[in-house]
């Protein structure tokens, strides 16, 4: 006779789950004890509870008895399955035909029979091959370069016509010359410029992941924007990005910043710097674990650097794949890059306390580069700040500042590892419980400006948040990956294009990319090709009057190919 172990130590899977749930709900044992009793993990016990509550586990239907619980398939059915597979039908399609004959057999059973009969699995087929695409849609077999004249007389709707708003600004940056200077490679079918524009088109639309390129796969408007019949497949884009080395990306970035500076997009006198950890699923031996503030823990990530022009709020430099030992040197790396762009201009760098070391601050001072940063405060410094008496009140000229009149105390101090002395400004009454210790090597800047400049360092953090939320910088866990440095460089270019568009929109000059996209870029439109003349018509929308006020006639009006046609934007 079976004893109590038959109930306390069940052997079959369904009875084991049943007893585990009974112990959870009837005996009210915690998940940890239930997991120890039945050999589960606490996470799996919580999952069982959730599935049972939501009705996804039904113990009224017992598991099938017998060896392996497999359905016996007659020889007659096997003959039918063989005949249908020889016609290249899938297991699901065979199951539907058997159901029409009154034989209810699962797809798994059909797959088992096909394997026993020696049939290999069918290759994964596209929706086009199985006839599930939109009727009458033109679906090319491959992506390749086209000329506008090849589309003579065509008129089609596109869900991505908003990207054509950026073509005049892209023409000012001259992507063909940028690609040539960067030495980006192309292929026999797809030029390098078209690859770059395909990536940029997806960035400008805020595509959540690169793997979602399939959502725009057959959009002829987005293909025309890139100079192609359709966009390349996601695997082609991923392969292309990993074919670029750091020299290509650095040259591309340098070409973009040079042209943007000539157009007057950057002020360049004050630059905000910040590090950001991009969570990434990669080789554990290559990627380090870095602190991710949004997740509150250390994660496997690619450490990246962002430099932002404080005046225009545009990103002007990025770096990726930074190892922890090199993080403190990134201020010097950015300085070397910036001096190649604008010789003779020495910007003021602003960053937080952990961005670099005092020894590297000394090197910046040796190159006559001004900096503003925080001093790492301890209990001794806080105690000394409470004992100080010489405080004076200042006014920070910022309209939206909640505490515009804090108190400051200025002094000259020495810090370990820094040659010489630095200026220290202690700030209190700025809405924080503890005072802030600012240090700088600029002894001439008024305290109001020094405190105000550092207070606006949050702009680079907002820029990173926008890159994460709209340009989907952190969406790198997609099955289709892109090279991190190339991805953040594309983010920098897309951020610049949105900034150029905002400057032309009356009343929206200071708006961020998500708002501009929602009001002006998102939505369908019509594209009509007349010879080498492309007319993009935007339907009636509430903000079309703002777009009509833009002096498009003063901006370049052509497609971005070496022999591109004329572009006309119409707003109903």
Write the layout of secondary structure elements.
Layout: H1 5-8, H2 13-25, H3 31-38, H4 42-53, H5 75-86, H6 91-100, H7 107-116, E1 155-158, H8 167-173, H9 175-182, H10 192-204, H11 220-225, H12 234-242, H13 246-262, E2 270-279, E3 288-292, E4 297-309, E5 315-322, H14 330-341, E6 348-350, H15 358-366, E7 371-374, H16 379-387, E8 392-393, E9 407-413, E10 422-428, E11 436-440, H17 447-455, H18 458-469, H19 484-504, H20 513-521, E12 525-530, E13 533-538, H21 544-548, E14 566-571
Parallel strand pairs: 2-6, 6-7, 13-14
Antiparallel strand pairs: 1-12, 2-4, 3-4, 4-5, 7-11, 8-9, 9-10, 10-11, 12-13
Describe the structure.
The chain has 572 residues and is α+β, with helices and mostly antiparallel strands. Among the domains are: 5-53, no CATH class; 67-116; 159-248 and 480-520, no CATH class; 369-456, no CATH class; 525-571. Helices cover 38% and strands 15% of the residues. The protein is built from 21 helices and 14 strands. It has helices at residues 5-8, 13-25, 31-38, 42-53, 75-86, 91-100, 107-116, 167-173, 175-182, 192-204, 220-225, 234-242, 246-262, 330-341, 358-366, 379-387, 447-455, 458-469, 484-504, 513-521, 544-548, and strands spanning 155-158, 270-279, 288-292, 297-309, 315-322, 348-350, 371-374, 392-393, 407-413, 422-428, 436-440, 525-530, 533-538, 566-571. The strands form two sheets. Strands 2, 3, 4, 5, 6, 7, 8, 9, 10 and 11 form a ten-stranded mixed β-sheet that branches. Strand 3 (288-292) and strand 4 (297-309) form a beta hairpin. Helix 2 (13-25) packs antiparallel against helix 3 (31-38), helix 2 crosses helix 4 (42-53) and helix 6 (91-100) packs across helix 7 (107-116). The longest helix has 21 residues, at 484-504. The protein starts with a helix and ends with a strand.
